[in-house]
Amino acid sequence: MLPRQLRVRKSQIPQIMTKGRSFFSPLVSLKVVASPVPTALTVFTVVVSAKVEPTAVGRNKIKRRLRHIIYKNKKFIKLGWQVVVLASPKASTALFSALEQDILYLLAKAGLSNK
């Protein structure tokens, strides 16, 4: 689980989804918007719809994996952004390493990576 200070509030998700810039890969996609406070920590939320994985157990597994990847690489992520991570249907069968590679690629593509 991501610490509270790294999580997007539920009320902020619609704003990020409508105003955010999109970045896509085969397994996940990102919606990114600049935070109102540029020196604030970059915050994340992970969304896995029932279309991606019909069972709650499967959705939670994907969410845990994606959150762990974000937490593990948080030291390489720039400050001052709000990010929504959206899983695609292929994410349910993907290996952890493939998910991590896609997330890191998208963060670099969005200009959020210090790596």
Description:
The chain is of the alpha+beta class and 115 residues long. It has a single domain (4-109), classed as Ribosomal Protein S5, domain 2. Helices cover 33% and strands 20% of the residues. The chain is built from 3 helices and 4 strands. Strands 1-2-4-3 form a 4-stranded mixed beta sheet, with helices on both faces. Strand 3, helix 2 and strand 4 form a beta-alpha-beta unit. The two termini are 23 Å apart. The mean pLDDT is 95. Belongs to the RnpA family.
Whole-number count of domains: 1
Instruction: State the share of residues found in helices, binned by percent.
Output: 25-40%
Instruction: Give the strand order of the largest sheet, numbering strands 1, 2, ... along the chain.
Output: 1-2-4-3
Distance between the termini: 23 Å
Proportion of residues in β-strands: 15-25%
User: What's the total count of β strands?
Assistant: 4
Write a concise synopsis of the structure shown:
This protein is α+β, with helices and mostly antiparallel strands. It has helices spanning about 15-20, 55-70, 95-110, and strands spanning about 20-25, 30-35, 45, 80-85.
SSE layout:
Elements: H1 13-19, E1 21-24, E2 28-34, E3 43-47, H2 56-72, E4 81-87, H3 96-109
Helix pairs in contact: 2-3
Keywords:
single chain; 115 residues; alpha+beta; Ribosomal Protein S5, domain 2; four-stranded mixed sheet; 3 helices; Ribosomal_Su5_D2-typ_SF; hydrolase; RNA-binding; Ribsml_uS5_D2-typ_fold_subgr; endonuclease
